Amino acid sequence: MNVRERPFSSLPRAVQVAFVLWLALQLGYMTFYRADPSARFETLDKPADDAVYRVAALGSERLLSYLLTLELQLHDAQSGVHLPYSRLNFEHLKQWLLALHRLNPLSDYPAFLASRVYSQNPDDSKVRIMIDVIDELFARDARRHWRRMTEAVLLAKHRLGDLPLALELARKLSRMPREIETPYWARDMEIIVLDEMNEKESARMLISSLLQSGEISDADERRFLEQRLLKIQQELSGTGQIAE
Amino acid sequence: MVRQTIALFHYQLLGLVNRKLLLLLGALYLLIFLAGQFAAELAIINSELLAPALQAELMRYALLVLLIIVVCTRVATDYKTAQFERLLSMPVSRLQYIIAQYLFVMSCAAACLAPGLILLWLVADANLAVYWFSALFLELLLVGQFALLAAISLENLPAAVLLSLGLYLLSRLAPVLDLVFSRSMPFYEEEKGFQLTHKLFELIQYLLPDGRVFANNNQFFERAAATDLLAGQAVSLLVYSGFVFVVLLVDFYRKEFNRS
Q1: How many structural domains compose chain B?
Q2: Inside any domain, residue B127
Q3: B40: nearest CA in chain A?
Q4: Count of Cβ atoms closer than 10 Å to residue B222 Cβ
Q5: How much is the ipTM here?
């Protein structure tokens, strides 16, 4: 098939005018009204009701929780630009993490994001919110979240320098039911924090009572506590503080 | 009678296995695999759980659309080429035609799912792969019946595909609609139209399948007893299939084919 093209000037006048006018309109529109392609931060909204996610999941709520977690995790990457976590609304973030956990209580992902991702923040108040999240998740399911709780203790101790908070969290760890299997260092964090706080007498009494209670069956843990007790007793005898 | 039904089923299979369909199936599975691996790359932890679950879910939606199109096309072609008139002039009953179509749906579902079984076996484990293959097979049987019902009733391909998808989505979205109604109720207590719609929806729900008839994706995370889940699903499907089957028979037997 051989189709020859006629010159532009041979087109009907109305088509020529319409073409020029529409071309000008298109160029003008794109010049003045084009959507700004630069990154614009979209705030993190509150999550919807749990019931909404539960029914919207169409029976796949565990999978939906993971997909929502990924969406939340990627919220700081907008229009190809990575925005700092400090720009997130951490109260909403907290609600999201708790809602995601309610949607999939078998997942450790929300607690992981709180302890390892969103806690890496220069703002102390925001780190505290993340510690609150971990604390709440630990209260819901200590067996699944004790590891994140130990990280929360370290965050409180080293990142915030808030030893009373670290002690409060460590106490919750040490009071976990014995059926929950954890390494001894997790339960013994309370002693370490007490030692750090110079509460040596309390640490000594706690270790002594633990050793005498017979609860410690692990030989390594027993050895660790005995060494710790010896060190504290030596420090206390050096200062003459041992109570009868 | 059995031999005739099998012959009819063989006839339905003719032309089904073609290169285009195989390529489409291959492309779908490739996309599903890539999507799952992409999500796994995004996840910081638990990617080994997320990838197979997402691949299984995508497999569900891709295959059900494919099955609906294949089944509706098959029946629509029979209408278009006046096969019914020819078949019914032979000593073949309409019941045999429906049974042959059921066998066709089963074969299609199993054939479409076979690569999925291998994929999940590779990315997850044998137990999960077998569970999902069985559960999705049952779900696809339901979808195939929807497609059969829609195609035989409407005699028109696009309308049948849309109705089948609509029936499936209505069945799956029934809890969502129920929630919307229950949450909206306090705002429309005076509205008679709203009350009527709500009542109507409540009645329609009795004609929809039970929620247990769908494959349970949570199994990828929970590892519950798969046999219990499958047994519950099979019972729900059996009850609902019987209902669809008789509706299909009523509709098909009422059709007059010698219309010329």
Answers
A1: 1
A2: yes
A3: A70
A4: 13
A5: 0.76
